[in-house]
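User: Design a sequence. Structure:
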């Protein structure tokens, strides 16, 4: 999943989230348009050159192309591992106003077994941590860390690789140091619970946030500073037995996410015990979605933009991404 400088593509947005993104672009919020959009993604020519796995949602893993091929089989034929999001979303954490806990552990083993029969090779679970002067509480951190560890153990019991996603959100005015403090606490809590639950660290992928200042913070650090803060945080917390760390994009633009990943792999090459990869959603999808806008005659142009963003992140894994790559015809058409 992190071999050959590839990464993961997350196309696991819920129906509600996908519909909101469609609404912003005037795309009909229908099952047919969602299927058409996801078919555009999974049939993108050459996608397997940059992408090793695709995270699907329950709706997507059951969908088929217009030619009646299952999305799972299309991905398999492209050399891309099919994965599945298995959490049931977040609710308010009782006793902790403004904080969330992820649901979905009840019946998880049976659901995972069903997805494995459908062709899934790995799974994903997201925990959400909000940041301000008073949050997160220890109760929120511990509850989400324990849920992530339980999920990972259950995945491994049924033979699926767990992708563990503890996301410290970008929303807020917190600075880089505060994000680093919270991210370190969240990762320490997860690996403590992972040890208690018997998670095989060598058979999982970590999908964390990069260490970033909040979106409303006045001081937006440069890529090198973010690279230093992120990798140092990971060196303090992530055991060497974890094979790969695939960052979420968390609302970053495609160009920023690529530049920051590139800085990490360039500055810390040969000094990290794990591979640094990507597991982006919007940072790869958004330019293509804007081009497509629900119009079938724009599929090829949208696919070119999607392949371009995937290729940029493939280069960032080698420390070979450069802003000049954004001047290619595919990149220009995405603007």
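Assistant: Done.
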């Amino acid at each position: 999943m992190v071999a050959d400088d590839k990464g993961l593509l997350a196309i696991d947005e819920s129906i509600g989230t996908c519909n909101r993104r469609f609404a912003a672009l005037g795309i009909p919020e229908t099952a047919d348009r969602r299927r058409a959009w996801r078919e555009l993604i999974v049939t993108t020519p050459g996608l397997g050159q940059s992408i090793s796995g695709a995270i699907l949602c329950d709706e997507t893993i059951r969908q088929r192309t217009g030619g009646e091929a299952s999305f799972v089989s299309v991905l398999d034929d492209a050399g891309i591992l099919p994965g599945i999001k298995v959490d049931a979303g977040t609710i308010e954490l009782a006793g902790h106003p403004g904080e969330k806990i992820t649901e979905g552990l009840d019946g998880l083993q049976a659901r995972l077994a069903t997805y494995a029969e459908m062709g899934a090779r790995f799974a994903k679970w997201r925990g959400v941590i909000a940041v301000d002067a008073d949050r997160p509480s220890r109760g929120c951190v511990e509850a989400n860390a324990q849920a992530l560890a339980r999920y990972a153990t259950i995945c491994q019991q049924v033979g699926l690789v767990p992708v563990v996603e503890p996301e410290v959100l970008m929303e807020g005015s917190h600075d880089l140091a505060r994000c680093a403090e919270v991210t370190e606490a969240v990762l320490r809590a997860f690996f403590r619970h992972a040890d208690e639950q018997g998670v095989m660290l060598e058979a999982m992928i970590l999908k964390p946030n990069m260490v970033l200042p909040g979106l409303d913070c006045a001081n937006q650090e440069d890529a090198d500073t973010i690279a230093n803060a992120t990798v140092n945080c990971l060196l303090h917390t992530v055991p060497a037995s974890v094979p790969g760390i695939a960052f979420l994009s968390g609302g970053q633009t495609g160009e920023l996410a690529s530049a920051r990943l590139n800085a990490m792999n360039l500055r810390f090459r040969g000094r990290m015990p794990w591979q640094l990869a990507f597991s982006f959603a919007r940072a790869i999808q958004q330019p293509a979605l804007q081009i497509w806008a629900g119009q079938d005659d724009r599929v090829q142009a949208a696919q070119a933009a999607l392949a371009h963003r995937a290729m940029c992140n493939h280069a960032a894994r080698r420390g070979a991404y450069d802003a000049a790559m954004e001047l290619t015809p595919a990149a220009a058409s995405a603007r």
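The radius of gyration is 19 Å. The mean pLDDT is 96.
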